[in-house]
Design a protein that fits this description.
about 1500 residues, mainly beta, seven-stranded mixed β-sheet, 98 strands, disordered N terminus
């Protein structure tokens, strides 16, 4: 049963675009995959809307396995289900047999595994919030996600924020949603799939403790330790440990009465602090901290990686000492990095290149001195690599001969390996081996084996390697379903899959070990209604206090000034200053994160950031005696016996000592002090004559300790791309202050840190050079092939990074990127092909025929004696085949599933797929696939005609085996009428090229004199078919031209000069109206265009409005159908696409112009006295009926109002013709005067749309079937007529039953904010024209009384408001020009801020504008060129400094402020002159310093190039 269900299911991708609104208004589009039963589909399954797997160009080549299993090749991968955060993509294949194929027709993989922006929010939370605008139990809720549901992690369970109600809002989350918060496993089609850290489905690969996927833990080290507080030291706090940036898995446990707190410092020097006082989760520098506070201990856990350096501290409290234990994994931030190969030692004749290793700092991203990498024992410095280079022979024109590595051309010995043997096991891990030997090549090219020591300059390649390490297929049981009952005993089910190492459902598992899929379950709940849950107790007092304390410092949704805690006083005694930071912050409600804003965004006065402080008076040591003080006091008392001064001078501490050791002096500080407040005051408030004298005292009299003495920096070791400068650093000591000699000591005698002896220099870009990669795999294993390699032009930049450049930047000719390989002759092999079917009709068999063939030197295959293939097994297979039905068998008539559509290409695209039956207006040079879907007919036998003749075209036109016609880039000559012929069935397609002035005309081959077609006497079918022109040729040319003209006028309205003025609100409006600009093709029903053409033929001033409304209608319908109309399902009845009425949506309902829904056309006489016809479908009455209802259903926001017209004029209502409560039109006893074109118009404040139906009364005598465009047809509409003999008699006299009669709705009482509409509802009795009003109760038999009032225009009254313009300090966009900001928001009549979507229909003020500021008076300042690095040759260059500086002050600033003007070059070539044959000893390359450091001067090829640098070695 399970297998049958699996084979009957076909997974198809149904694109459901759902917009998730982020904070900035962007929309994240998500796809969801839905299960559809195979028996619900037509013969050809629905394919992906963008790239159809049916198309041969989108499929990979079929593998041998696919051919054996009758599967078609896998199609191309679909678009990713998410735009960030990791989603899913799928690939489809179809079964080519009429029977069931074994295996799956769909496979998945992960895609776009990049993190989402920080402000985009949680994906599951977005899906919950999308239900906020849907009433549940009569009210709206703000839904929060419920994470980590053990029973069903892929169901969308949400919790109401206020009431706490938990509900399952959807049976499954969208594809790509994480199953659990701390896992990469994701939900796909409602099932949780395992995802490894390598983002592969079914992968079990995990991160090591260092955070490296599938790592071995060597990139970090474990640090553990303990700390004990010492209260007796007198400190109030102490540092436990400093955990560096990027550390992971931090765990710290404090046992004792003390408390933990954390300080942070980023790489940019920004500091932060976090006080841990309650249990919970905290966020510091983008790092989550889990803190647990117990009665006797505190526990801190940080998963990491840390976003900054964290200093973990202890704040002392009274009591016993505390003990702290900690453990964490610290990253090894200094690693060895291998450099690129140095330039070749010689320009030709064979030379060598070497690599080196440099120490790289992962924190700063820069190269540092080698000592940093030597600090870690785990770091092993890679050995220099040696390779040969420039092996081509030197030309005699060089004038001199280079030194060769050997006497003759002699390549280096190298390791040669044989191919790997077959793996020892097919799965579960095996071993394969190969032989490796050292070989050398002589000048004739002969390769011989030699001693291994000759190859030891490079590491020996591996001779063993693991293989097929993936796990063997195993059974995987999915989660059990919920019990089938809610109480008592029931059943539960689960899905059991055979999962291979890729995480895909495949075969190969042992069927005897398959787990069971059904079992009994018992719900331990009695089968009666449970008691309601008790109310939740009030929160404890401590939690309430914590909430109140948090509210005092919390950030709201309005911009508010948030002050930080005061820092300690700047002085420990006397008067000082306290400071704090005050930021303007706002809470982003969507992502629940806090954002910093400019101060001008906050209202009110900004709190002070500094204040005076005073602790205790300072007790300074004064040198003057107490007696003199007393005398002065007595004198002052005598002078002012009755008055005491408020301010007086006072000593407060001393200045810092003038020397750090060896004896210095310090001066007493005198301040003016307020005696009452004891705070420092202005010195002018004190009497200057009473200022105390200057006091000095000796300080730092102890002898100086040993100190570091540094020498002068040496010259730079490299001329570009970061070199090194060195200097001497020694520990010295001067015994006394007056001595003139110093003593050199050991480094251990001086304090750390030691001054750096090495620093970087020449940090500017090197000139570009060629960089060659290793040769790739040969294209052939034998018979001569090609192998390629990458040859790139690279440049080492000043920051040590490598930049790829175009080839024109490198000076010399590029090295070869392709060479010949695999010259050995290919062995013979069997080549197979299927024979023809054994029968010419019906079912037969095919045999696999094998021929022994060999590929020759000319790459052609030739048949050879089968003895040459005797070592290989000859393949023999038989398979069934099925051809056309035999003549004696019954077969149904073929049907072509054409579609009456008009395709108008709106913008250029790579590829279009169209269906016959309509018209197409396409742009030239577009690739088009024209399909002819059929039933009861083999696609390979479809014939195509153009202008009535067999289709044989130029090379760019081809017909596929599946019956398609493919145009590879349309030409003007491709315009015409194309006919698809399937047996007796034919369908036409008119193709016209946009921009071509040529009008289509009937070809001469179709017409005979008076319009008859020329045919051969033998082709009777053609004569019968083409008695006249098969389709109107230029029917829709006029309306298409008007649509394209309207497109041009829309593009002209866009002003490119407003780029700098374009703000965020403008972008949001553009995104809200981007349906039209994103369309590739407009698709319209021919019936709808016929209605528009009928309205246009009547003239009037509404012509432009009708075309604009048609364009808007096509854009909306195109967007709602989600591009599915371009590749519609091939069903016989699918001629009209019905927009979905109830689509799942994640975004809030937005304002939308009205759209009238078209229902499938069913025209005919219904055996009833009443008839209902949906607008857009013609109404043909052959017999009298009692009433006709023209139903008009419209969608829009705000809700549109409906009005009716007849033949383009206002419709007058009377007792017989009136409106229903739904807005539909009812005509009682329709007769001949009621004939005409009835048009329903839906209108709201965003736009207008209309749709028409033609009413025709034939009285039962006519036989013509009339469509809405008035053209006779013999299609499926007429075939649905019923020849019923029943007829409805009109009522006469008092026999007419009572009925309700409604007047039209009155205008709305308010344009916004909620109004009402009313109408009159009466009960009428009697025949039409003589009816009278009776009591309402007499009409109760015909249905309940329609409502006489309804609400309207419910949206609140809103308007745009804005703050004042901020300061002019934005990004520089020109000379003295910057960008100025202001806040624009939507508010209601009570000045309350509301969502900006409430104002989307109003013109939004700009929030950005240009302003003038002197800060942007910037220009590029260039320095002088440095001396050339060479006096001759091709490698000389010089550089200069280019900075962005202020024109007036000359102060340098960041370069991006000047990027509105091109940056001048910072380097150029120089002295490009040929070096003569002078015999002086000099260096001819700039890498000689490296040659000398690596001790390569003993080699002749280096010594000759670096003569000057190597002469003293």
């Amino acid at each position: 049963m399970t297998g049958g269900w699996n084979t009957a299911l076909l997974l198809l991708a149904v694109c459901v675009k759902v917009a998730v609104w982020a904070n900035d208004g962007d929309a994240v589009f998500i796809r969801e995959y839905t299960l559809i039963r195979r028996d619900h589909l037509a013969e050809e399954p629905l394919q992906d809307a963008i790239q159809k797997p049916d198309d041969s160009s989108s499929r990979t080549a079929r593998s041998e396995e696919d051919r054996d299993t009758l599967w078609d090749a896998w199609g191309s991968w679909s678009e990713c289900s998410r735009t960030c955060g990791g989603g899913a993509s799928y690939s489809l294949r179809r079964c080519l047999s009429s029977k069931t194929c074994e295996g799956q027709n769909i496979k998945y993989r992960t895609c776009i595994n990049v993190d989402c922006p920080p402000d985009s929010g949680d994906f599951r939370a977005q899906q919950c919030s999308a239900h906020a605008d849907v009433r549940y139990q009569g009210q709206y809720h703000e839904w929060l996600p419920v994470y980590n549901d053990a029973d069903n992690p892929c169901a969308l369970k949400c919790k109401a924020k206020v009431s706490g109600l938990v509900m399952e809002l959807a049976p499954k989350v969208l594809d790509g949603t994480r199953c659990y918060t701390e896992s990469l496993d994701m939900c796909i089609s409602g099932v949780c799939q395992i995802v490894g850290c390598d983002h592969d489905l079914g992968s079990a690969v995990k991160e090591d403790n260092c955070g490296v996927c599938n790592g071995d833990g060597s990139s970090c080290r474990l640090v553990r330790g303990h700390y004990k507080t010492q209260h007796a030291s007198g400190k109030t706090e102490d540092t436990v440990v400093v955990v560096p940036f990027k550390s992971r898995h931090v765990r710290l446990v404090l046992k004792g009465p003390d408390h933990l707190y954390v300080e942070s410092k980023t790489l940019q020097g920004v500091k932060g602090e976090l006080v841990l006082d309650t249990t919970g989760q905290f966020l510091l520098e983008n790092t989550t901290l889990d803190f647990q506070k117990l009665s006797d201990k505190e526990i801190l856990r940080i998963t990491g990686p840390l976003g900054a350096d964290f200093t973990l501290k202890v704040q002392f409290s009274s009591g016993a000492d505390s003990v702290v234990q900690y453990i964490y994994y610290q990253p090894i931030i200094h690693r060895w990095r291998e450099t690129d190969f140095f330039p070749c030692s010689v320009p030709c004749g064979g030379g060598y290149q070497l690599t080196s290793a440099e120490c790289f700092d992962l924190r700063s991203g820069r190269v540092v001195v080698d000592q940093y990498c030597h600090y870690y024992p785990e770091n092993i410095k890679p050995k220099p690599k040696l390779q040969e280079c420039n092996m081509e022979l030197c030309l005699a024109s060089d004038g001199y001969k280079q030194i060769m590595p050997y006497d003759l051309y002699h390549p280096l010995p190298r390791w040669e390996s044989s191919p790997w043997t077959a793996c020892s096991t097919s799965c579960g891990g095996g071993i394969q081996s190969r032989s490796v030997s050292c070989v050398e090549e002589d000048m004739q090219g002969t390769i011989t084996t030699t001693e291994e020591w000759k190859c030891l300059y490079s590491s020996k390649t591996a001779i063993l390697q693991p293989c097929n390490a993936y796990d063997c297929p195993t059974w995987l049981a999915q989660e059990w379903s919920p019990c089938t009952v809610t109480c008592g005993q029931g059943l539960r089910y689960r899905v059991v899959l055979c999962i291979d190492h890729r995480g895909l459902h495949a075969g190969g598992c042992n069927p005897t070990t398959k787990p069971h899929i059904k079992e009994e379950c018992l719900v331990t709940v009695p089968c009666y209604k449970s008691i309601d849950t008790l109310p939740v107790e009030a929160k404890p007092v401590w939690q309430k206090q914590a909430i109140e304390l948090d509210e005092e410092v919390s950030v709201g949704e309005e911009p508010t000034f948030i002050p930080a805690p005061w820092q300690p006083c700047s002085r420990t005694c006397g008067a000082g200053t306290q400071r704090r930071t005050v930021r303007c912050q706002v809470l982003l409600s969507f992502s629940q994160s806090v954002a910093d804003l400019p101060d001008d965004e906050c209202e009110g006065v900004k709190p002070v950031t500094s204040q005076p402080c005073y602790r205790t008076p300072c007790s300074g040591v004064l040198d003057r005696g107490k007696e003199s003080e007393k005398e002065e006091e007595e004198e002052e008392e005598e002078e002012t016996p009755e008055r005491e001064e408020l301010h007086d001078w006072e000593y407060e501490g001393f200045t810092e000592c003038s020397e750090s050791c060896g004896g210095g002096v310090q001066e007493a500080v005198v301040i003016c002090l307020n005696k009452q407040t004891r705070e420092a005051a202005e010195q002018s408030l004190c009497v200057s004559s009473r200022r105390p004298p200057q006091l000095l005292q000796d300080c730092k009299t102890q002898p100086c300790p040993p100190r570091w003495k540094t020498g002068e920096w040496s010259s730079c070791s490299a001329s570009c791309g970061v070199g090194l400068m060195t200097r001497t650093v020694a520990c010295s000591h001067r015994p006394s202050r007056d001595s003139n000699w110093t003593e050199v000591l050991r480094d251990e005698d001086c304090q750390s840190p030691k001054p750096i002896p090495v620093q970087a220099c020449n940090r500017f870009d090197c000139p570009p050079m060629w960089d060659t990669r290793a040769w790739g795999q040969c294209s052939q294993s034998c018979g001569g092939g090609f192998q390629r390699r990458k040859v790139l032009c690279k440049q080492r930049l000043a920051d040590g990074s490598i930049l790829e450049l175009p080839d024109t930047f490198c000076p010399s000719e590029s090295p070869p990127s392709q060479q010949i390989c695999a010259k050995l002759e290919c062995p013979a092999r069997w080549v197979t092909d299927w024979s023809q079917c054994s029968v010419t009709c019906g079912n037969g068999i095919q045999r696999l025929e094998a021929v022994c063939r060999r590929q020759g030197e000319d790459r052609r295959h030739q048949n050879v004696d089968p003895e040459n293939c005797s070592l290989l097994a000859r393949p023999t297979k038989i398979r069934p085949c099925s051809l056309r039905l035999c003549e004696n068998s019954l077969k149904p008539n073929p049907i072509i599933l054409g579609q009456k559509k008009v395709y108008i290409q709106w913008r250029k695209g790579k590829k279009l797929q169209l269906v016959v039956g309509g018209y197409a207006y396409l742009l030239p040079w577009t690739t088009v696939v024209l399909r002819c879907p059929t039933r009861n007919f083999r696609k390979g036998q479809i014939r195509w005609l153009k202008e009535g003749k067999p289709l044989t075209g130029p090379p760019h036109l081809s017909m596929t085996s599946l019956g398609y016609v493919k145009f590879q880039q349309l030409r003007a000559s491709d315009a015409g009428i194309y006919t698809c012929v399937a047996g007796q069935a034919r369908e036409h397609f008119v193709l016209q090229i946009i921009g071509s002035k040529h009008k289509l005309s009937a070809p001469a081959s179709w017409l005979l004199g008076g319009g008859q077609q020329k045919v051969r006497e033998t082709d009777a079918a053609m004569r019968e078919r083409f008695q006249a022109l098969p389709v109107p040729l230029n029917r829709y040319d006029t309306i298409v031209e008007q649509l394209l003209e309207l497109k041009g006028s829309l593009q002209d309205e866009k002003d490119p000069a407003d780029k700098t003025q374009k703000n965020r609100s403008t972008l949001e409006d553009e995104r809200a109206n981007s349906e039209l600009s994103s369309l590739l093709v407009l698709i319209a029903d021919t019936q709808r265009l016929d209605e528009i053409m009928h309205d246009l033929s009547e003239g009037g001033q509404r012509e432009g409005q009708l075309v604009a409304q048609l364009l808007r209608e096509l854009a909306v319908t195109r967007g709602e159908n989600n591009e599915s109309t371009l590749h519609p399902p091939e069903k016989a009845e699918s001629s009209t696409q019905v927009p979905p009425l109830d689509k799942p949506s994640i975004k809030a309902p937005r304002l939308r112009s009205p759209v009238i829904i078209q229902r499938p056309r069913k025209v005919g006489v219904v055996p009833s006295s009443e008839m209902t016809v949906h607008v857009g479908v013609p109404a043909l009455l052959q017999k009298p009926i009692a009433s006709l209802e023209l139903r008009c259903e419209a969608l829009g926001n705000p809700e549109p109002s409906l009005t009716w017209t007849k033949n383009g004029k206002e419709l007058h209502y009377n007792s017989r013709v009136g409106l229903l409560s739904s807005g539909s039109l009812r005509i009682q006893s329709p007769s001949k005067p009621d004939e005409g074109l009835y048009t329903c118009t839906a209108n709201n404040r965003l736009g207008t749309t209309s749709l028409s139906s033609l009413l025709q009364i034939t009285g039962g005598k006519g036989r013509s079937c009339v469509q809405s465009n008035g053209i006779g047809a013999n299609g499926p509409i007429c075939s649905e007529r019923s020849n019923s003999s029943q007829s409805a008699e009109l009522c006469h006299g008092q026999a007419c039953p009572p009925r309700w009669r409604m007047d039209p709705w009155s205008p709305c009482s308010a344009s916004c904010g909620g109004g009402s509409q009313s109408r009159s509802v009466r009960c009428l009795k009697g025949p039409e024209g003589r009816s009278r009003e009776v009591e309402s109760r007499q009409c109760l038999g015909s249905g309940r009384r329609p409502s006489d009032s309804r609400p309207c225009n419910q949206l609140p009254c809103t308007r745009w408001a804005s703050t004042s313009w901020g300061t002019c300090h934005g990004q520089c966009v020109g000379p003295s020009l910057a960008i100025q900001h202001r806040h624009v928001y939507c508010q209601d009549i009570n000045t309350t801020k509301v969502s900006y979507r409430m104002c989307s229909g109003l013109q939004r003020p700009v929030s950005l504008k240009n302003c003038s500021t002197e800060a942007c008076l910037l220009h590029w300042r260039v320095g002088p060129w440095t001396p050339c690095t060479a006096t001759c040759g091709r490698h000389g260059f010089q550089s200069r400094q280019v900075t962005c500086a202020h024109r007036r002050t000359g102060k340098a600033t960041r370069e991006h402020h000047c990027m509105w003007r091109p940056r001048p070059p910072s380097w150029q070539r120089c002295n490009i002159l040929s070096c003569g044959r002078a015999g002086e000893c000099r260096d001819s390359t700039r890498y000689c310093e490296k040659v000398r450091q690596l001790e390569l001067c003993t080699l002749p090829q280096f010594k000759s190039r670096c003569c000057h640098s190597c002469k003293n070695t």
